Amino acid sequence: MHVPTKPISDYPWFIRLFFWKQRRRYGKVLEPGMLWGRSPWVFAALALLYGALDRKRSPLSPVLRSLLTVRVSQINHCEFCVDINSATLEKRGVSDEKIEALWTWRTSPMFDPIERVALEYAEAVTHSEQSVDDALMARIKKHFDDDALVELTGLIAFQNLSSKFNAALNVPPQGFCHLAAHAISGTQEQPSTGARQQERTPTDQ
């Protein structure tokens, strides 16, 4: 990593509490948390925001939330994020085959219409050369009301923040998912906007 982590004892007590919770949930302290912990109040705010976005009563299903976080992480080349979010997808009952198919979701039959339009939206938000046009927004609003759309957009934006932070600081995967390395290496990126318009399937309309 480009910035070293500090000994656990050097962090403020309330940040060590977050680390304790991470160790209970994941079996280890997460490297990004130890980096963010260098700015304690920012880390605390981010942790609370993530908890709100991933709460049980979210209008977005747990599987959809994890599909989106993995896909955004793939686009931003964050190996840590692909690793940990793929592991979460597994825990939420998603098959290895579907996780691997995220790279080619447009041509895979494994994704339902809601997942497909949400993934399309996530890519449009994440790729800086793209924009969310009226046609895409109309398709999104067929499946998500205004409150859910705000949460959907917030989740995508948060994952862009998280994955770009980790990628920039070269945070490595921590071995949560055996598929993580396969999911991020040696695979071609999705086609550009023009190519995607031509290959849109009927379920995307």
Structure characterization notes:
- It contains eleven helices and no strands.
- By secondary structure, it is an all-alpha fold.
- It has two domains: 47 residues, Single alpha-helices involved in coiled-coils or other helix-helix interfaces (Up-down Bundle); 147 residues, AhpD-like (Up-down Bundle), CATH 1.20.1290.
- It starts with 12 loop residues before the first helix and ends in a 7-residue tail after the last helix.
Quickly list its features:
AhpD-like, Single alpha-helices involved in coiled-coils or other helix-helix interfaces, mainly alpha, 11 helices, disordered C terminus, 2 domains, 205 residues
In summary, what is this structure?
It contains 11 helices and no strands.
Shape: globular
CATH topology of the largest domain: AhpD-like
- Estimate nothing, just give the exact number of structural domains: 2
> Which homologous superfamily in CATH is the superfamily of the largest domain?
AhpD-like
Order of helices and strands: HHHHHHHHHHH
Which ranges are low-confidence, i.e. pLDDT below 50, for 5 or more consecutive residues? Answer: 190-205
Tally of contiguous helical segments: 11
> What proportion of the residues is helical, as a percent range?
55-70%
- Broad CATH class of the largest domain: Mainly Alpha
Determine the mean pLDDT.
89
* CA-atom Rg in angstroms: 17 Å
**Main sheet properties:** none
Instruction: Find the structural class using helix and strand composition.
Output: mainly alpha
End-to-end gap: 43 Å
**What is the CATH architecture term of the largest domain?**
Up-down Bundle
Into which percentage range does the β-strand content fall?
Answer: under 5%
